[in-house]
Amino acid sequence: MFVVALGLVVADLVTWIQLDIATIFSLPLVLAAPARSPRLLWSLAALLTVATFAVYAYQIPPGAFLPRETFFVNRVLDVADLLLIAVLLQIRMNSAHARETQARLIKEQNEKLEAAQASRRLVEVQETERRDLANELHDLVGQKLTALNISLNIVKMAPAVATCPQVGAHLDDSLKLVEETIESIRNVMMELRPAVLDDYGLSAALRWYVEQFIRRTGVPTTVIEQGSPRRLPSVAEETLFRIAQEALGNVAKYAGAGKVTVTLETTADVSRLTIADDGCGFDPSTCHPPASGHGWGVMIMRERAAAIGAELLLDSAPGRGTRVIVTLRDGISSTPISKLPGSNAQRIA
Description:
CATH topology of the largest domain: Heat Shock Protein 90
Strand content: 5-15%
Largest sheet: 6 strands, mixed
Strand order of the largest sheet: 5-6-4-3-1-8
Structural class: alpha/beta
Shape: rod-shaped
CATH class of the largest domain: Alpha Beta
Distance between the termini: 72 Å
CATH superfamily of the largest domain: Histidine kinase-like ATPase, C-terminal domain
Low-confidence stretches: 332-349
Number of strands: 8
Number of domains: 2
Radius of gyration: 39 Å
């Protein structure tokens, strides 16, 4: 490109033609390259500007320069034309770059949206499978165990059993085993899909799960509700509940905490769930990619939050405990809750 411009300058010097032919008609041709480089554009414009006056200075006789001389005025107009063309080309380059940048951003946003929608569908499928499995356990296994328990009790009341203590003892053991199995299946069903989440919403489900957590671990845990309780869409409630489950599971496994606080804050446009403990804490920057058997909890919580468009913040430091904060800004509808089942939860207006 510089060679072309230099050739035009040489032609102007040798043939005494007006350089406006070079500047007006050749510059768009020279710069109409796929590179669209502003540096190249202005380097060429500067070269032609300098060459315009250099050739003029070489061509005029010594002492013949006059600012009003027609040939000099034409050269000034040539440079003005050249700079105008350069400015127009720069504007065109900027416009093309802006369109490309906008198209790239739109493509990236669409890809993120598609990924989020896919993650949300995956979460919905998982929850549907959990619900179906819980229903099957209830309808098939649970009902059969209940029927078995009734049958064993009927057998136990038979006169023949009263005359055979060994049979009665075996029946008592069998009844105890059936009752323990029923309780275990009930617990599994609640873990898979707590009915309280469907019936009463997230806050009630959190209080129920915290009671189970205290019973299993013995770690004092408090549920605090701030704002006006309201129902979120089922996928949001399911996701926040699963994140709370995962966070409390991590507390039980790793934190060595003396107390835990679960806070559910709801405003007109924001729902925020915080699980805070006073345990050993850790440095989040040192987290490694998940490996076999460990390290999956944080990744799973982040993916669940991202699937519903929520933000997850992990705030922790060695010796200072850990806070898991999930913030969901409502672009989704919700339903106020007038009254929730009674509990010991602390509510702050």
